[in-house]
Amino acid sequence: MNKLTTKLKEIQNLQDDIPMFVTNSKEKSPISPLMYNNDSNKKLICKVLLNDNENYDTKKFEAITSQDKRFLMNLNIIEIYPKPLYNFVNILCDGCKSSYSITDITLNPSGLFRCEKCKSFKNGILHFNTTLQCRETNMSNQIVTLYLSSFDGEGNGFFGIPPVDAYRNSNEFQKLGIVFKGLCDPGNYVNVLVEQYKGGILRIVGNYENYIKFN
Ligand SMILES: [Zn+2]
User: Fold this and answer.
1) Segments making up each domain of the chain, as ranges
2) Residues 134, 188 contacting (CB under 8 angstroms)
């Protein structure tokens, strides 16, 4: 079952309603050494918050079928793209829903920017737009690719900090670094709610509590 390695192009064609899941095809898959520490000692670092009336199965990657719409997974994150870290955050035009890089656009103090496509000033919605490469256990060779794009509020809280311009703010950039290290630490794991889209695309949805500490 290799459907999750679908190419970026196909993803975008299938998901026209989802503004640009991140995905620089030039980024290569991480080749990090397998970690042989004991999975049972791993620490939960981020967890989906469910309402009392919500109940989902926890799925192993191998057990996911095309019928599964929403389910839980426990995963070790090994990489988060795109790099550098400030590129985790994009700006979405609330008019035409175009997505812009944080490096290209500065919001004015009232949160407006000039959208090239709309040819006018529009509200810019800062949101996380990332690709996460994960394993189910530290010893697994299977890479699970998940997308987190919070433009519509799904995945809120996952990073433990709001989406901000860390390209122009070094304090925020440092915080992102702490978040990245915490999430990708092989001693930590995350509990996520996953929604499966057409073509086997897996997206992180729901609201999250993140336990990473900033001191
Ligand atoms: Zn626009």
Assistant:
1) 43-83+129-210
2) no
Residues with CB in 5 Å of ion ligand 1: 93, 95-96, 98, 115, 117-118, 122
How many angstroms separate the alpha carbon of residue 8 from the centre of ligand 1?
Answer: 23
Instruction: Indicate the fold that domain 43-83+129-210 takes in CATH.
Output: OB fold (Dihydrolipoamide Acetyltransferase, E2P) (2.40.50)
Residue 192 CA, ligand 1 centroid: distance in Å: 31
Q: What is the pLDDT of residues 56-108, one digit of tens each?
A: 999 999 999 999 999 999 999 999 999 999 999 999 999 999 999 999 999 99
Question: Is residue 3 predicted with pLDDT exceeding 70?
Answer: no
Give the model's pLDDT for residue 156: 97
Peptide bond before 84: cis, by omega within 30 degrees of 0? yes
> Residue 171: is its pLDDT beyond 50?
yes
How many whole angstroms from 97 Cα to the centroid of ligand 1? Answer: 6
Q: Are 94 and 116 in contact (CB under 8 A)?
A: no
The secondary structure of residue 154, as a DSSP letter, is T
